[in-house]
């Protein structure tokens, strides 16, 4: 998760499905995590877009959708980490468990760390484009072409082991560094940086 946990009890409970213990499970943490997720996503959309309410609602619905959360949850949570009595863990349980983990982070670490986790893993997830169909690089290229601006993507940093690399990409408009983004692939980092640039400049 990128930080040291203080009270492991909450995280243990977040990984406990009701099939494992009907009285001591992650449903209360899931309820809390769902509310916090909606609030933080709403706040981020409001702060980073000048769009109308309809657009913001649509984007939030995509980000917090069950299908998207299931994918993110499946990426972050090992099936063996979830305590259950089910033979096969359905996809929806990964999304529900992810919300419970958000609740656990909030209780353990407070708003700042929870926001950091949500923005990094959910708002800027690698799966978002599957649901939105938005190619931020192409959109930026078109707008830059209209304004006759030169757009360049530069790799600033590459660190980590081969199986867990992190790339930092910067976007330059007419040789001015406008934004930077990090991701586990160059392609994803470029998309994130392009999205940031669109929000900043256009």
Describe the protein in words.
The chain starts with 7 loop residues before the first helix and ends with a helix. With 202 residues, it is α+β, with helices and mostly antiparallel strands. It folds into 2 domains: 123 residues, Ribonuclease III domain (Ribonuclease iii, N-terminal Endonuclease Domain, Chain A, Orthogonal Bundle), CATH 1.10.1520; 66 residues, 2-Layer Sandwich (Double Stranded RNA Binding Domain), CATH 3.30.160.20. It is built from 9 helices and 3 strands. The protein has a 3-stranded antiparallel beta sheet.
Using only CA atoms, what is the Rg? 19 Å
Strand order of the largest sheet: 1-2-3
- Class per helix and strand makeup: alpha+beta
Shape: elongated
Q: Provide the succession of SSEs.
A: HHHHHHHHEEEH
Number of helices: 9
Integer tally of domains: 2
Terminus-to-terminus distance = 33 Å
Biggest sheet, open or closed, and with what strands and sense?
3 strands, antiparallel
The total strand number stands at 3
Average pLDDT, rounded to a whole number, is 91
- CATH class descriptor name of the largest domain: Mainly Alpha
Poorly predicted parts? none
The CATH architecture of the largest domain is Orthogonal Bundle
Features:
single chain, alpha+beta, Double Stranded RNA Binding Domain, three-stranded antiparallel sheet, 9 helices
């Amino acid at each position: 998760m990128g930080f040291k946990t203080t009270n492991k009890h909450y995280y243990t409970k977040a990984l406990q499905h009701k099939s494992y213990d009907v009285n001591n499970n992650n449903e209360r943490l899931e309820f809390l995590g769902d509310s916090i997720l909606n609030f933080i996503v709403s706040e981020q959309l409001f702060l980073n877009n000048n769009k109308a309410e309809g657009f913001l609602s649509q984007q939030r619905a995509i980000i917090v959708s069950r299908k998207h959360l299931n994918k993110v949850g499946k990426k972050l949570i090992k099936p063996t980490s979830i305590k259950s009595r089910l033979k096969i863990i359905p996809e929806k349980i990964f999304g529900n468990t992810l919300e419970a983990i958000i609740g656990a982070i909030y209780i353990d670490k407070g708003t700042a760390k929870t926001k950091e986790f949500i923005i990094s893993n959910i708002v800027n997830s690698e799966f978002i484009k599957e649901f939105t169909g938005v190619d931020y690089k192409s959109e930026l290229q078109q707008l830059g072409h209209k304004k006759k601006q030169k757009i360049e993507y530069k790799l600033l940093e590459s660190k980590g082991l081969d199986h867990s690399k992190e790339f930092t990409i910067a976007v330059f408009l007419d040789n001015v560094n406008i934004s930077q983004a990090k991701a586990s692939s160059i392609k994803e980092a470029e998309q994130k940086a392009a999205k940031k640039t669109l929000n900043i400049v256009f």
